[in-house]
Fold each of these.
Amino acid sequence: MGIIGLPIAIYGYFAIPDQPTSSKARWLPPSQKQMAIDRMEVCRRRPVKRLTLKKLKDIFTSWPLYFFCAIFIAHVLGIRIYSYFNVWLKSTKKWSTSEVNLIPTAGYGAQIFFTLTYAWTSDAIGMRWPVIIAACVPALTGCIILSVWPAHNTPAMIAGWILTFLETGAGALIITWINEICSESAEHRIVIIGVVEAIAFTFQAWVPLFIYDTGKAPHFPIGYQMAAMFFAIEVVLTLCVWQVHKRWPLKVENEVEAD
């Protein structure tokens, strides 16, 4: 897997233009660099400054770091359930090996369509939180179907599994929301997004081992209920962030750097 990622990393080093104010991309003409800078100013996205101890203190005492860590942990632990669709199919002993590999592609296809739909819709309405909640609803519904366990109703079970795929696109909206809430401080955006993703995927590395016991497939004793809980928590925390941001918007003190 590292061999596959290596050429992409090398390509990214030269292809990704970095910050508009500090970009050294030779393929980007000056007019387009200025256009990017102008767009950043319209969105009040300030350029990256030196990361000081005072700035770090501001970041780690600000509410977005902790709320978004909690939301993203719930998100990644919730969507983890759909990766066990193949395990369920195989354990029922109703499907051939080719069918076990083929059937989940319906979920991945729906995932792509809904991810694009969430992005277009959130951009159209200029808000992230309603679409994040809307994305959680079908996945939560799918987990409820699986929790009820209509084992005799195979179409219902497959529908429940496919619905769990549909929340994945909310992850990109959460990251976008962080960028918007912390728009006035590039340091807040960089550090918070880094910490949020690192902590969330650390949880994803070990929590599923306890809640999705593959040895007890096709009926995971607490897996379906836990996934439903994670999506429900994501909905509640999204509403909390929406209200907290309305009442206590993030205020960033700009430090004056010495020449």
Note: The mean pLDDT is 88.
Amino acid sequence: MANYTAADIKKLREITAAGMLDVKKALDEADGDLDKAQEILRVKGLKGVTKREGRTTSNGLVAAATSDGVGTLVEVLCETDFVAKGERFGALAQQVLDQAVAAEAADAESLLSSTLPEGQTVKELLDAANATIGEKIEVKRVARLEGPVVQSYLHKTSPDLPAQIGVLVAVEGGDAQTVKDVAMHIAAFAPSALTREEIPAETVENERRLAEATAKEEGKPEAALPRIIEGRVNGYFKENVLLEQAHAKDPKKTVGKVLDENGATALAFARFRVGA
């Protein structure tokens, strides 16, 4: 007869986030010893880490922290929305964010190799969580911005999920509301660059080729092609460059114009959307 109770099963599931069947098997093998059962689950879970490496992580959350002109943004991914909205995963993501801040990490590689106060690396922390939760968990992206003012903004795309879109924006000058509005605009309109100079030359050239091919396909006169091509390339900039986008709260003005009117200069930004 099993030497454990329903309360033991519940407690072990809360500790490890393992499935009901796995918990029961571990308790059977450990003869009801909770500590030993936890070790069994972890060992079995760690053996499955390699098998899970090829799985797709399309769920998760973004988390951000700002302090004294420094902002940090992390994207932590898992396989299912069930795990993404769980307290255990949320606590893990917060631990990862705290370490990113402490280590001044600016990319995922440096964060993963950094050592936590407990002595393990972030990579080892994730492997252990991977084992107990039973899903592939990874830090996909990390961003770190510095500036006179760094504003963060997190957005939930679904009320029952954690934040799926995260933004950092570094600004000089301006008031708090102006900076917050720009951060929210970035979340909504997903610019790919701050200025048109930041768009890769090959991307711009490809847009020119597409604009020319489209204009010719439409039968536009040869003499009008340069003007049409230039207009369509400028249209691309207006869609993708933050300072040239129409401001979310005042579409008659560009983001750059709104910043200028409020004595602010955008220095840099970062935007993550889970799985994108």
Note: Residues 30 and 37 are 5 Å apart (CA to CA).
Amino acid sequence: MQLDSINATFKLKNGIDIPVLGLGTYKAHGDELISAILDALKIGYRSIDTASFYENEEEVGEAIKASDIERKDIFLTTKVWNDEQGYDETLKAFDRSMGRLEVDYIDMYLIHWPVAGKFKETWRALESLYEQGVVRAIGVCNFLEHQLKDLMSTANVPPMVDQIEHHPELVQPALREFLKENHIQQEAWSPIMRGRVMEIPQIVEIAKKYHKTPAQVVLRWDIQNGVVTIPKSVHRNRIKENSEIFDFELTEAEMKMIDDLDKGKRTGPDPKSFDF
């Protein structure tokens, strides 16, 4: 596995390549977001993550059109929100997302949260979209092991990705192992704990050794663990800094040290008890 370039990718179960580093866009809007995406694409990012819930698909689509990067070279992800779930509802939601993004296919379409009683029908819609070829890969977000097992018990196409909250204080090693065993690519949201990794002494020490920032150390930890990471920023210097993780490598001892910081501590909702 070569992790020495921003062009590095992991291969999904169906053979599609997904960039190991992407740009998250949650809570980013307007011209600020368009500029951030254009900056990221110039720096070398080729993966953009959005969702219908973010209410910024129009800006994402506008930025992609305004860039000089060909559409085929950009890995675009969006997601179906909770109140859009169900078979027919998901197909309609997908059409709305396509219209807002102004594209004719999506690289990856994800179920945003495991809505009980709905996610199996939602998945059936994703399978239909995948079979039609308008989506290159399908997956889920925020699914725990028992929810994945339930989904996979009736799925014709197993999920290719699980995008979950993942950072040094929420490692979820059992879930990580389950994903690896089932060839489901793990993807990390909130990888730098909304900036709080800067306050963890062990990570600060590792960062000093490599002349890197704590955020860069954690993003490197992600990709060395085989985890796709999608840090969010609208600031060019931070977007560039987040991409500068391919010129150093953490030792096994350092990887374990970060793993051992796990506290089972979430910054976001718990997939077992969310109520939205």
Note: Strands lie at 9-11, 17-19, 23-24, 47-49, 75-80, 106-111, 135-141, 161-165, 185-189, 228-229.
